[in-house]
Amino acid sequence: MTEPNLGLRERKKRDTRKALSDAALELMFERGLDNVVREDIAERAGVSVRTFNNYFAGKYEALAYRHIERLRRSAGLLLTRPAGEPLWTALTEALIEPLREDGAGGPPTPAMLAETRKLQAAPEMQAAAAKAIGDDLVVAIAQRTGTAPTDLYPKLVAAGVHAVYLVALDAYSHSDPPEPVTTVLRDALTQLFQGFPTPNH
């Protein structure tokens, strides 16, 4: 997704963050979470350790950035969905598309799921993921529903979506046989949205 309002310097910073996060994930699946260190992440991404330290406090922040960045992209995608599309359909597609773009639509291997479970169980990862909701999704939902970002409704929807997202990731990591994360997330969002009414104006 292009971001015409983002300056060149900010795009470069975002690209560097994503490269470091991608490198961290690749190394986690190759070597195991316990064997990933910042020096190797920096080397894989083609930057110095000092550059890594300028962006992340450690490997867990680097790994959590993928989750944060996908939700940010989802917020942008939500605003591009057809105007007449129901909110829940638009949200579902906006949340799943970044996963597809990142190649996460295929079934994982048992080894990948084992490392994913280890990652999700780490307190450092849980703390980093808790910060992921941000304001972007709240603002996008408010704009989509004709509410204000300070209203209760967009905040509740964003918080609910984020909670379900995390639950879906946990269910995905325990799926047996392994299922694509997009399949698990779509099912989880469907169950959530069946219990939330659309606001009346």
Characteristics:
Tetracycline Repressor, domain 2; 69% helix; mainly alpha; 201 residues
Short description:
By secondary structure, this protein is an all-alpha fold. It has helices at 8-31, 38-45, 49-55, 59-78, 87-101, 110-121, 123-130, 136-145, 152-173, 181-193. The protein has a domain at 58-193: Tetracycline Repressor, domain 2 (Orthogonal Bundle), CATH 1.10.357.
Biggest β-sheet: count, sense, barrel? none
Q: What is the total tally of β strands? A: 0
Shape summary: globular
Q: SS-based structural class?
A: mainly alpha
Q: What Rg, in angstroms, do the CA atoms define?
A: 17 Å
CATH architecture label name of the domain at 58-193: Orthogonal Bundle
Query: In what range is the share of β-strand residues?
Result: under 5%
CATH fold field value of the domain at 58-193: Tetracycline Repressor, domain 2
How many angstroms does the end-to-end distance come to?
Answer: 31 Å
The parts where pLDDT drops under 50 for at least 5 residues are none
Helical residue percent? 55-70%
The named CATH superfamily of the domain at 58-193: Tetracycline Repressor, domain 2
What is the arithmetic mean of pLDDT? Answer: 90
